[in-house]
Amino acid sequence: KQWYQRRVGVATGRHLTVLPDVAGVTDSIDNRVVTTEAVDLNSCFQIDTTLKAFTRVQALQADISLLNLNNKCALKVGTVQLPEWGAKQIEVTCTRRHIRNPSSVHLTLEHNISPVESENTQFIRPFGFLQKLIEMQVKMLVTNNALLPSEEERSSRPWMWPLDWEGLWFSYSHKHGGVYFLGNPVIFWLNFGMIFVLLAINTSQLYAELRFKDLPYNADVLYSTNWYLFGYLLHYVPFYLMGRILYFHHFYSAFIFNCALTASTAEMLFSRCASPHKTTVLRVTLLSVVVMSFVAFSPLAYGISVEHEKNLHINKTW
Q1: Which of 83, 303, 84 has its CA nearest to residue 172?
Q2: For 270, which DSSP code?
Q3: In this structure, are strands 168-173 and 177-181 parallel, antiparallel, or unpaired?
Q4: Please, what's the largest Cα pairwise distance for the chain?
Q5: Please, which residues have CB within 8 angstroms of residue 148's CB and are 6 or more apart in sequence?
């Protein structure tokens, strides 16, 4: 099914146009420059779909291609990032290779506001919860994976996050500095250590089961705590598979599970004490450490400048 149109930017009102010049970044003879120029024959596109005639076009499911008639090429979103003058965006070109590989120029139709198209086609969104979840994951793995940092942008790696190795910069500049959010390192280190304590508890529990001995820890509490560990790994491990730019705040969702894991694991350890008085002392001690560390590191946690700020730099990477 095919029809013809000119593509107009809603914000700028300018027409999408293909020039006969070779694209500058990819520097391939098969790629043409895509820009916004005056309306002429280079602004005329043919919308091509793989659907049969009179078939309903479904948003987010139907693939379309924009074919430029005058230059005989198809609009394609590449993988090459433009320099500073292109605001670090991904280069869009018009390629002539679509004849040999049609699927490489397929685009996803997300929304329709054209009254002309609405008369001939019906756009629906039949996605259920599972389909939306799958589509979101695909977007993160494919589209977001191509995001790269700019020259002055500070990024981090996943292994740094549980150790509070580096904080999070906001509006960072080599000339003027920026706002720096670190977080409470005592909480981060405590959470990280408790993961290994929980693994040791699971090993001890499994050993007791295999030996038919009395279980050292409450099985129901341990089962629930292991779900916190699963949630932590589910929100943390996938970042090791991503090639995109990563920031400290990507760890925050996993950090919530880690805090719940720490509290539950600590409670299992405290319950091992025979004396209720000792259990209370341990709980108060842990709570006091958390409160005192929060008070001490709150300037770095919230970007507040104080006189004793330099005394808090116990890690050279901060």
Answers
A1: 303
A2: H
A3: antiparallel
A4: 87
A5: 81, 88, 244, 245
> Which residues, 6+ apart, have CB-to-CB distance to 276 below 8 Å?
none
Q: Which residues contact 283 (CB under 8 A, 6 or more apart)?
A: 270
Concatenating the DSSP letter of every residue in 221-243 gives: HHHHHHHHHHHHHHHHGGGGG--
Structure tokens at 271: 């319950």
pLDDT per residue over 233-279, tens digit each? Answer: 999 998 888 777 788 888 889 999 999 999 999 988 888 877 888 88
Beta strands at 2-5 and 15-22: parallel, antiparallel or unpaired: unpaired
Q: Nearest Cα to 244, choosing from 158, 165, 169?
A: 158
Residue 51 pLDDT: 62
Task: Find how far residue 147's CA is from the centre of its chain.
Answer: 9
Q: Which pair of structure tokens corresponds to residue 20?
A: 């006969």
CA distances (Å), 288 to each of 3, 110, 197, 280, 281, in order?
A: 70, 52, 21, 12, 10
Residues 141-163: tens digit of each pLDDT: 766 666 666 655 667 888 988 98
pTM, to two decimals = 0.61
